[in-house]
Amino acid sequence: MTHPTPPASPTASASPPLARRQDGLWLALAWAAAAIVLMPLASLALLASGSSEGLWGHLASTVLPGALATTFWLMLGVGLVTTVVGVTTAWLVTMCRFPGRGLFDWALLVPLAVPTYIIAIAYVEVLQYAGPVQSAVRALFGFSSPREYWFPEIRSLGGAIFVLSAVLYPYVYLTARASFLLQSAGPLDVARTLGATPLRLFLRVALPMSRPAIAVGVSLALMECLNDIGAVTFFGVKTLTFSIYDTWLNRSNLTGAAQLACAMLVVVFALLTLERRARARQRFDQNRGKQHAPTPYRLTGWRAAGALVACSLPVLLGFVVPASLLIERSTRRLEMLADPDFLAAAANSALLAGIASLVIVALAVVLVFAVRLRKSGRLRLAARIAAIGYAVPGTVLAVGILIPLARFDNGLDALMEQLFGISTGLLLLGSGTGLIYAYVVRFIAVAHGQIEDGFGKISPNLDMAARTLGRQSGRILGEVHLPLLQPVLLSALLITFVDCMKELPATILLRPFNFDTLATTVFEAASREAFEDAALPALTIVVLGLAPVILLARTSAQTFRTRASRRTTGGQTPGPLIPGP
Amino acid sequence: MTFKTVPSFARTALLASTLVVSVAPVALADGEVNIYSYRQPTLIQPLLDAFTAETGIKTNVIFANEGLEERIAAEGANSPADVLLSVDIGRLDGAKQAGITQPIVSDTVKANIPATYLDPEGHWVGLTTRARVIYASKDRVQQDTITYEELADPKWKGKICTRSGQHVYTIGLVASMIAHKGVEETEKWLVGLRDNLARKPAGNDRSQVQGIKNGECDIALSNTYYMGAMMTNEKEPEQKEWAASARMIFPNAADRGTHVNIAGIVMAKHAPNKDNALKLVEFLSTPKAQQIYAEASFEYPVTPGVAPSELVQSFGTLKADTLSIQEIAKNRKAASELVDKVRFDDGPAS
């Protein structure tokens, strides 16, 4: 996110040539990674280059104005709600002390594990006419038909903003929280000494300092809301993504769909660039020589109660409500637990998501590190373009992924046939590796933004010091950057793992024969309109997604404790970026 | 967890991804047939089991909701796909237009399935039909006959429920209206229908029937087989109540007949197990398979002489519209544009 350009930054000419030997290698590696991730987007652009048979005229005169407005309001709504909820809760758990804070520290992350298509179904079940809430209202007031009273319709734009925000705010929470924790106490203490009230301190000092991190979180939430098709279709909210699917599937116009998707990406990219430009002259790295954590505010009385409510509401709405419904429905189908197909699906999900999240984080580190080494503007641009693939509607991106995979397989097959007379068939497409590739393409943005932001917080002075001591770039990364980034890396691993577990459109289209993950099992049941069959696998996604949250919370709590004990002897502490219980 | 060196990351990832690759079955061996399917595995498994029992040929399935045509096209000559099981004439015909199919040349199929449900050039074979009918409240609707045209009559104002106008089922119906009445007439009809809606189109077919149970609407558009699926739903017994609140009326029974659509199969252009694929298609056209399919899916068999399941027969007699399904396929694009044009999915104007 931030790209510090200190006047004394190390340049090729400034350091001994020997110490820069490896840099070219890193750059080459990063370019290779960027190219691989960019290929599906290039395929989409290629698809879009054909003629769309008068599509734009039709769309412009019919659904496009409405779709644009709907998408705008949806993004505005989700953007505002996730920012307010994510930032407020992050500030409360990092800067204040109140009963239950330790629990909320990690519990606030939990809704992240609930897929949007699940929470949408769950809230319709709860809030629809025959659901428990409306039944209670009718019983209470003695109504007997829907025409006798007004009840907010969950299948609406407002409903979509609500359910999407309920599971997407953790992106903002996590990045804002990490940023608040990394903030050195210095500026905050200065402000306090000058008599700033807590609110002023938050608005005028902490918030501006955390802007890059918050921007990462909000843009992730917004891109996820842009690419969503499950929840919006179910709610009948006609977004741009909906028009893209109609164009492709009902009018057999893949070219037109690709054009719409590309146009949408250009707008997303422009918005992200504008946001970065707006803070281009600011630097966010901080000197953390002998820092100490800022003194927290102790909340008591109604303030503590307020904090408690503010933190429990998101967890309640984003997790407890949908999870309770899933648990209730799962109990009707407990025999599934012994079903070998179900167990295989769970194992597939965990294995694929585990490997993919490691690969994604490793690639993101390479991309950001190479940019840091060489200040390569072009590579940074390439990485950022690659990262907006996240905003493409899932199945459309999956079609974009199909093309390079098939090209590679068929090319290799032809080559092997020619050279050795053996046919290799399709190696990657329809294999686990192909799926991992798809996850990398879809979710590199999630890791890239956080890691870019994390690197931005590491002072270039450290790089210079290491160079002076004769360290090669690989050792700087391994011995200086990665240890400092460990909390950021863990948090990136966690989010990408959960995202891969939930991933549906690419998995379903690109998978091997007779191969299921939890997400495809959920979808298969949901597409038969059999919600109770979907409940247990959906719950398993949530539970498997929770496991790393809790595990990492433990690990980082330990890290925090050891760091804290070192702190007394003058060591430095970045603090736990992953919440500790 | 330590992050000393990046290569250790890479090693783990590489090792593990090889493991995953080996999970992928080699689907090209003899004695197999590879099926890409838009129909849920649960639905077709009994059929496939019967096929394997009879022929010894193993079946491999990939189920997806969209994009399988694009996958077959991208895979090209190396595609493992033998057949694509699909629903809706639009999709079957679309696969043919995309050039990813080959003619199914079989006297058995021709003998078993009426020409109405076969592509003249053999590129797709219809296997079952389903009708788009009216589910009417047992309490609030008196009449026993209805027409699609009548749905635009103001007497139904605020009483009709339907899913999205852009859903393939609705598109099929609108396309058939265009084929019968022309675009202008259909547009007027669609506006009338939209203004009679009880609520904005959303949810699936079952939730429209649930709307009848709840008193939100008096009539709903839905496919025939959902009645069977809901009536026999032991896992979610509340759906039995939804079904019990409604009865089925077959529209236009007195004139042109009720709009029907098909589920069917195509053979992939580069099918690696072509012989087995042909055996599968032929098997699916036999009375035995048609019986199993009809029982499992509550759809109508296409092979003459095979009766629908008893439950389906209890819904009443289907008189299917004889309009050729190619006509419906042809008008889908116009139908989709019309739905956009009248802003059907925004719900009633007033």
Automatic annotation (TrEMBL), chain B:
Keyword annotations: Iron, Metal-binding, Periplasm, Signal
A GO term for molecular function: metal ion binding
Statement: the UniProt record of this protein carries the keyword Metal-binding: yes
Signal peptide boundaries: 1-29
Domain of life (superkingdom): Bacteria
Cellular component annotations (GO), alphabetically ordered: outer membrane-bounded periplasmic space
Binding residue positions for Fe cation: 225-226
Gene3D superfamilies: Periplasmic binding protein-like II (3.40.190.10)
Family: Belongs to the bacterial solute-binding protein 1 family.
Name the UniProt record assigns to this protein: Extracellular solute-binding protein
Organism field: Pannonibacter tanglangensis
Taxonomic lineage: Bacteria, Pseudomonadati, Pseudomonadota, Alphaproteobacteria, Hyphomicrobiales
